[in-house]
Amino acid sequence: MIARLGIIAAVAFAWSAPALAAGHATAAGVASATIVSPLRVIALAPMDFGDITHVDGTSGTVTVSPGAAGAQFSGGASAACSGSVCADAHAARFSVTGEPQRNYTIQLPATIVATGTGLSTTAALPALTVNGLTVRSASSATAPHLDAAGTDHFEVGGTITLPPDLPPARYRASFTVIVSYA
Q: What is the pLDDT confidence band of residue 8, given thresholds at 50, 70 and 90?
């Protein structure tokens, strides 16, 4: 719903008024506002790197990319299993609603820090960093845009780095995305 508010005032001209001839003049300005539907963003699925294993004494990385299924592994990191037995790795998924046909922007944090809970140890676990965050909108790779119904969705991917000798653990992090009209 768009509501328009306009205030228009007339400019006063007084050709014969002696006060205006003495160096005074007046004018009226214009004020206006357009009210648009607020943007809303909803998380649909988490960023999931899947079940990972890595070679002892070797670091590695795992990357999930927007618009792609599965994960890419490097260094000593690899998938712990394959097929339908394991959950598929994937980018985080979000839905956006707002004013139809409007562009919007997506802001991501620079990094995400995940903390772990040990599966077989009570020792302190190192935090893992997710960096290299990337985003891909369904509407555009460079300028996200709401469709005629005022909807769009986007995905966020990133890379998690595993240090050498990381014990078995479950890691979790939350992160904030900000959407704004462009």
A: very low
The closest alpha carbon to 169, from 130, 125, 134, 139, belongs to 125
| Per-residue model confidence (pLDDT) at position 178 | 97
| Contacts (Cβ under 8 Å, ≥6 apart) of 101 | 145, 146, 147, 148
Determine the 3-state secondary structure of 60 from DSSP.
Answer: strand
Closest C-alpha among 128, 94, 90, 88 to residue 108: 94
What is the rounded CA–CA span in Å between residue 40 and residue 23?
Answer: 53
Q: How far apart are CA 109 and CA 71, in angstroms?
A: 21
Identity of the amino acid at 30: V
Handedness of CA 151, 177, 173, 158 (dihedral sign): positive
pTM score of the predicted model? 0.80
Amino acid letter, 81? C
Alpha-carbon span 74 to 69, nearest angstrom: 17
φ/ψ of residue 166, rounded to 5: -75, 125
